[in-house]
Amino acid sequence: MAEEIGLYEERQKTEKLLKRVCIELKKLNFPKESIYVAARGNSFQFYLREADEAMKYLSIKEKDRVADIVKVEYYNKLKKRLEKRINSINRCIRDLEETEPSKVYEMLGKGKRRMIEPIEPTNEQFRAEWEACEYHGKEFWDDGVEIYTDKGERVRSKSEKIIADKLYKENIAYRYEYPLEIPGGGIIYPDFTILDEKKRRNIILEHFGLMDNDEYANNAISKMQLYDREGYVLGDNFFCTMETMAKPLDSRVLDRMIERIKG
C-alpha cells in the first residue's frame, strides 16, 4: 500500500516545503533579473544581467541586492522541482491504489467471497479481529467516580469521556487502557490505544489532566520520554492532550488531533 512506503508523508512534507518557498518568494518582489558570476582566483565578481542583456557590475556595497536576486533564482527553481516532485508522488499513489492487491478480493462479489479466504485480511476483517481482542485493563478503585462513555465503558475523568465519545463518533477503533509491555520496564496502561487502519499499527493517545501539579507533570514528561524510547513519535504514532484547572481540555485542539490521526 502507498501508506506503507510513506508516500503520503512524503507528499505532506513536500507540500509544506513548497508552501514555505512560496511565502519566501512573496517577500522578494524583484523583477526578473539574473546574476552573472565571474571567478577571479579565490574571489568572485557579480554582474547584473538586465533585460537587454547588458552587464552591470555590482560592488560589494550591493551584496544584499545580489543575495536577494540569487534567492529569487533559487526559490523559483526549487518551486518547480517541488511541484514536479508532488506530481510524481501523486502519480505513484494513483498507480499503487489502482494495483492494490486487496481490491482483487473485493471485486469478486459477495457470493464468491463467501467461498474463499483472502491471502491477506481486508481492512474490515483486520479491524474486526483487532476489536475482538479481549484484555484486562487497569483496575478501578471502589470509591472512584463512575463515568461512562457513549460506548458504555467506564473511564476515569470527564475529559477522557469527551475523548472516548469523539473517537466513537468518528468511528475510530480504540481500546481504553490496553496494557502495553515495556521491555525491562513492566506494563503500562496508555489511556487510549487507537487502530491506524491504513498502516495497520497502533497509535497511543494519552490525556494528561493534572499538569498544574508538579509531581504529575514530571511523571507525564517521563512517560512521554518512555514512549519516545519505545518508538512512539509525537505527532506520528503518539498523541497527547493536556489540561490544568485554569486551562481545561480544548475541544478544538482535540478535533484537529483526531483529524490528523484519521489521516
Q: Report strand %.
A: 15-25%
Q: What coarse outline follows from CA principal-axis ratios?
A: extended
Strand arrangement in the largest pleated sheet: 6-9-10-11
* Helix/strand class: alpha+beta
Specify the CATH class of the largest domain: Alpha Beta
Number of helices: 8
**Biggest pleated-sheet summary:** 4 strands, mixed
Q: How many separate domains?
A: 2
CATH architecture call of the largest domain:
3-Layer(aba) Sandwich
Low-confidence stretches: none
Over all CA atoms, what is the radius of gyration? 27 Å
The mean pLDDT is 89
| Helix proportion | 40-55%
Distance between the termini: 14 Å
Order of helices and strands: HEEEHHHHEEHEEEEEHEH
CATH fold description of the largest domain: Trna Endonuclease, Chain: A, domain 1
Number of strands: 11
Structure report:
There is one protein chain. The chain is an alpha+beta fold and 263 residues long. The chain has two domains: 99 residues, Orthogonal Bundle (Helix Hairpins); 130 residues, Trna Endonuclease, Chain: A, domain 1, CATH 3.40.1350. The protein contains eight helices and eleven strands. The strands form four sheets. Strands 6-9-10-11 form a four-stranded mixed beta sheet, with helices on both faces. A three-stranded antiparallel beta sheet has the order 1-2-3, covered by helices on one side. A two-stranded antiparallel ribbon has the order 4-5. β4 and β5 form a beta hairpin. α1 packs antiparallel against α2 and α6 packs across α8. The protein is extended. The relative contact order is 0.08. The mean pLDDT is 89.
